[in-house]
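Intended use. Records like the one below are meant for learning the mapping from a protein sequence to its folded structure. Do not use them to infer anything beyond what is encoded.
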Amino acid sequence: MKRKNTMLVQRDFVAFEIDSVPEKRPYLLSRDFVFLKPLNEFAGPFKGRLFRLVKSTTVLVEFGDDFHSQHSPAKRYDVSFSFNRVCLKRAHQAISVASDPSLHNVLFPDQTVSYHPNTSHFIPDKAVKFQDHVRKILNHKGPIPFLVNGQLVQNLSPTGLVIQLALVNIYRTNPRCRILVCAPTNDTSDVLLRSLKKEIPDSSLFRANAAYRDYDLVPDDIIPASLYEEDGERFACPPLAELKCFNIITSTFMSSFRLYAAGLDSEHFTHIFLADASLATEPEAIVPLAHFVGRNTIVVVAGCSGKSPYWVRSDIARKHGLKVSYFDRLLAREPYLSNDSMFIARLA
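Structure written out for the chain above:
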């Protein structure tokens, strides 16, 4: 990695500037590993965790006392980076679980499966523009996923609005609903939760954050729906009994694993919504599906055709299809390929 010689050691973190991130490494992730090897010494290397990347040029890293006790301003280091394998392990574990035959119709839909739509839902007048799309979602019974093909959610695009209207109506018409809403990024998860807070009381909503998500970067209006343990300086999940009481839980695809680790199972959620699924690799999208799709779970997958997963670094993975998202793979097969309105909504 090209880097400048500027390095600032403070009590809480080490900051140093870089000229550019490595080729084929478009970003560095919080909690990735950073190694400092003293030049011309046998000590180290010292292992730290990336705390934050500031404006793509300044890296803030947390190191332990072993580094701070031996560091001096005159020392020079060789810097290297290694990604945190936690998310990769979760994806591998989810793929293993997904091999169960019970998930076949979610991953490889079969239109011959019996389908019994529900026609009892009412859509409010304010949703007239999208009422047909929302009604299709509300009427859907599965087990085949329902797809919504439109713009990315971002600042509550039409796709985001359709998802919001569907979630609010499910909440209002089914007091026993338990809904998991996942997205590839924290920003999208926060946007969806913020839209729901306008219609649904905070007591019914929970935001499952990654344990070490930077507290300072979490929007102020999202904090009340989260659980932050100040002693451990990390986000957490409440006790299982309390977790089961929330009607809607939002998270990223990967952070949904925390709900599984907390004790929720495949019989808990009545609905699973995957937003912006076209931006996630298929193993990422499978994480919530593998752990939480039950016999009666309704799955809604939203995305934007032509928008591929951001970062697939492996040439072998790209060659063998990992660049194709779960969302786009479904679009290319029946019943979605023929635009069957019982299974897909296409937004202009």
